[in-house]
Specification:
The chain is mainly α and 257 residues long. The chain has twelve helices and no strands. Helix 8 packs antiparallel against helix 9 and helix 10 runs antiparallel to helix 11. The mean pLDDT is 85. InterPro entries: DUF389 (IPR005240). Pfam families: DUF389. This is DUF389 domain-containing protein.
């Protein structure tokens, strides 16, 4: 076998090793999984409130184990993945519907946390609360690669998905929202801004990662957009990514110097 043939063989093996389409579920199954996970139902909202109170107690008592437990039972990531599906499939009514549901989840989560911290006798911020108020570019990397792992896990043929629990812990959507509730209940604008920005980083880069993988998997589109429309869409994504990421890069710069 010549060097060129060996080189091509190695490339083919690497390509197969990292192929996303080789063991992916059907487009219909992917759609069903993601949209079912993004439903904002009465049951999901009750579970969400329970998760928020548990996470708030964990943050208030500085208990990492309790915080992790709350992140595992929270259904909030489902709305992000469903919104990404609507975005990639160009189904904008679907995208809008899940974004509205996501906004409702955020509002209820922050309200539940605010009520808890308003009633809690422990008013001093714990280490766990303070840790959620200083996001940097490292949080961007965690959210992006966690989002990649999460959506890849959700689109596999194997329905036994062990990835999402790990992603829920790594990307930590719940604790920043709880910290926002603490900040509102105790009048801490500085903590509200820091925790709110951390939540935006986590939510946006999970959304971005999911959109990229669904695009690679060639999710069918509801309608075909013109090249000009797709170019405008891509430019918006690049603009939004820069807007969200730049403050975190600046934060790392000041940490280094």
């Amino acid at each position: 076998m010549s060097f060129k043939e060996k080189n091509e063989t190695i490339k083919e093996k690497v390509r197969k090793a990292f192929s996303l389409s080789a063991d992916s579920a059907s487009h219909e199954e992917i759609r069903e999984r993601l949209l079912d996970g993004g439903q904002v139902t009465g049951t999901n909202m009750c579970v969400l409130v329970c998760a928020m109170v548990i996470a708030s107690v964990g943050l208030n008592m500085s208990s990492t184990a309790v915080i992790i437990g709350a992140m595992l039972i929270s259904p909030i990531m489902g709305s992000i993945l469903a919104s990404a599906y609507g975005n990639v499939s160009a189904d904008y009514p679907l995208f809008t519907n899940h974004m509205v549901g996501f906004g409702l989840q955020i509002a209820i989560s922050v309200a539940a946390a605010s009520i808890y911290f308003f009633l809690s006798p422990v008013k001093e911020p714990t280490v766990e609360l303070i840790a959620r108020t200083g996001p940097t570019f490292y949080d961007v990397l965690i959210a992006f690669f966690g989002g990649l792992a999460g959506i890849i896990g959700q689109t596999r043929l194997d329905k036994t998905n062990t990835v999402i629990p790990g992603v829920a812990i790594a990307t930590a959507l719940m604790p920043p929202l709880c910290t926002c509730g603490y900040a509102i209940a105790n009048g801490r604008v500085d903590m509200l801004l820091g925790a709110g920005y951390l939540f935006i980083i986590n939510a946006y880069f999970i959304f971005l990662a999911a959109s990229i993988i669904l695009t690679v998997l060639k999710i069918p589109k509801v309608k075909e957009l013109s090249e000009k429309e797709w170019r405008r869409h891509r430019l918006r994504m690049v603009r939004n990514t820069l807007i969200v990421a730049i403050p975190s890069i600046v934060a790392v710069y000041y940490m280094v110097i």
